[in-house]
Amino acid sequence: MDGKWSWVKAGLALGILNIVIFLSGNHLGTTTFYSQTTGYITNFFFPDWMPVSSWTKGTCGGTASLSVGWQWLFVMGLFIGALVANRTSKIEVKKEEVPEMWIDRFGNKPYLRFFHAFFGGFLLLFGSRLAGGCTSSHVISGMSQMALSGIVFGMAVFAAGIPTALLLYRRGGGAR
After folding, report:
1. pTM, 2 dp
2. Could you tell me which of 129, 140, 142, 175 has the fewest CB atoms within 10 Å of its CB?
């Protein structure tokens, strides 16, 4: 084995994590981290805005006082865990500013790729807050609990994602 986890091991680990989180009365999701962080920053500079902010609604217990929740610690753990895994791994990872697949499709323009990544991430996060949860929350937690919202969201993700991927990576710049 080359040091990578198989999809089976990773899937089992995610399933166990999902069960533990569910049994603790919560659901797996990460967008609360971003809204809590936004709330901390907003509260620091503009304390009067917090009680009426729809962005941070539900992240401060209905009051202007904020606290670090388990989801905030979970996302920080994701970042720290990824950093530790990267630094301690013996696997050689090719580091590139712009992946070859992107260059084949859109050209060698790092600024364009970074702009698209930032803008796409912003839209994803904004949409997640509007939808009341992220892909992890709706698909992984929602579908495992047979929630209608999770099932509909999962179908919508694939219904939009597959044609988008086919459009972006069609012949001439396809995925490898």
Report:
1. 0.59
2. 175
